[in-house]
Specification:
With 255 residues, the chain is of the alpha+beta class. It has one domain: Creatinase/methionine aminopeptidase superfamily (Creatine Amidinohydrolase, Alpha-Beta Complex), CATH 3.90.230.10. The chain is built from 5 helices and 15 strands. The strands form 4 sheets. A 5-stranded antiparallel β-sheet has the order 8-7-9-14-15. Strand 11 and strand 12 form a beta hairpin. The longest helix has 22 residues, at 7-28. The mean pLDDT is 98. It binds 2-amino-4-trifluoromethylsulfanyl-butyric acid (MF3) and cobalt (II) ion (CO).
């Protein structure tokens, strides 16, 4: 069942989403060669709690940290630890918080120092795919319109999209209906209605779409071919006249 949100509820999700957006920017300021992924998680978790919110990834189905921190060939669900960032890495911060009972979810892939033009192009295309998907977020469209738009943009640029993981409804819980795949067919899937709040989150591989999950920790999702991946995510409300993006990358990109 897809739970619709009232105008008031959407404004409360926006408050959660604004704090989450500031959180990603705060942690992003500490990304540099020589810091560990655990250090980034620690700074972020403190910031979330200092601002009266709760990090929902921590403890979610046993996930041990507030942030997923995914480096290079790790697509998503990297567990923060004693891994040091190096110049030229790409690192994704993915975080979900609850503020005053309302849940938001966002992710951003950062460059560590100078990165190769190839990875820069992957990141740029992935972020473009996110906004192209968001453009389809209007009442009367279907989930497949978002999925198709994201897939098309990535594949026409020579990249592939992960099949195993999808975007999702959000707002009252981390994962609600509907599922929002990054691949699909126009005009198919659930109908978008005003008041739906969803996460759109292209997970894009430079090489093949195939991924594997770590046998030791059960979480870390890597590309099978070892090539880099990127991941951007926004929490978006479906409006009658178009999308309302509740998270923002402005705090990251204006610093
Ligand atoms: N933020 C992610 C998502 O889009 C990942 C959550 S996995 C968790 O669903 F275990 F860390 F919570
Ligand atoms: Co998500």
């Amino acid at each position: 069942m897809i739970l619709l949100k009232t105008r008031e509820e959407i404004e409360l999700i926006r408050e959660s989403a604004t704090l989450l957006s500031k959180t990603l920017a705060e942690v992003g300021r500490h990304i540099r060669p020589g810091v560990t992924t655990a250090y980034l998680n620690q700074i972020g978790e403190q910031y979330i709690r200092d601002n009266g919110a709760e990090p929902l990834c921590k403890g979610y189905e046993g996930f041990p940290a507030a942030f997923c921190v995914s480096v290079n060939d790790v697509v998503v669900h990297g567990i923060p630890g004693n891994l040091f960032l190096n110049e030229g890495d790409n690192v994704t911060l993915d975080c979900v918080i609850k503020l005053n009972g309302y849940v938001s979810d966002s992710a951003y892939t950062f460059a560590v120092g100078e990165i190769s033009p190839e990875v820069q192009r992957l990141m740029k295309t992935t972020k473009e795919a996110l906004y192209i998907g968001i453009n389809q977020c209007k009442a009367g469209n279907r989930i497949g319109d978002i999925s198709h738009a994201v897939q098309q943009h990535c594949e026409k640029n020579g990249y592939s999209v992960v099949r195993e993981l999808c975007g999702h409804g959000v707002g009252f819980k981390m994962h609600e209906s509907p599922s929002v795949p990054n691949f699909g067919v126009k005009g198919t899937g659930p109908l978008l209605k005003e008041g739906m709040v969803i996460c759109i989150e292209p997970m894009v591989c430079m090489g093949s779409k195939n991924v594997k999950f770590s046998r030791t920790d059960g979480w870390t999702c890597r590309t099978k071919d070892g090539k880099p991946a990127a991941h951007y995510e926004h929490t978006v409300a479906v409006g009658n006249n178009g999308p309302e993006i509740l998270t923002t990358f402005d705090f990251i990109e204006q610093q």
